[in-house]
Amino acid sequence: MRGQQTFGDIEFEHKKRRTRREVFLDQMEAVVPWKQWIKIIEPFYPTGEHGRPPKGIEVILRMYLLQGWFSLSDEMLEDALYDSQSMRRFVGINLLDEDVPDATTLLKFRHLLEQHDLTSRMFHQLNETLSRKGYLMKEGTIVDATIIAAPSSTKNKEGQRDPEIHQTKKGNQ
To answer: Are the C-beta atoms of 64 and 109 separated by less than 8 Å?
Structure first.
């Protein structure tokens, strides 16, 4: 990690248990052919001659992979990187030194990969590597939950049940 450690970094390093996400990200760190993929992308990646300088290829590539592995939208990935120390560490972002690249940056990167048909080459390589090492990758998700303010009762002012309001029960809750 670059720059000075935050209190969050120090706290994260001393926790007692590693999460499944951390274990998964460590495995992907070891099996993804980072240097090869960067060489594949480099000829097409903007150099910063026009406009502001782009983020490094590897940072955006890591974000792109997180997005696919955890089924996140561009905006949700941006939020997840602000929320998740393990994801920030995987991407290589220290919030003391830099901001998380925004959703538009990731969108442009994805379009660049699609435009030059780079994803098929990259993932063919990854699948071969994973199968040689005996790994099988499944898709995971991070749920986007939204809390909506609603009255505590399903009854309307007249004390009658409103036909448009429904309750859901899971287990005994």
So the answer is: yes
Q: How far is CA 79 from CA 69, 83, 105, 143, in A?
A: 16, 6, 14, 12
Q: Position of tokens 């561009």?
A: 74
Note the pLDDT of residue 67.
Answer: 93
Q: Say what the pLDDT of residue 133 is.
A: 75
Largest pairwise CA distance in the chain: 68
Query: What is the length of the chain?
Result: 173
**What does pLDDT average to in each consecutive run of 10 residues of the chain (173 residues)?**
58 72 90 91 85 83 94 94 93 89 92 92 80 67 48 62 63 59
Cα–Cα dist 82/93, whole Å: 10
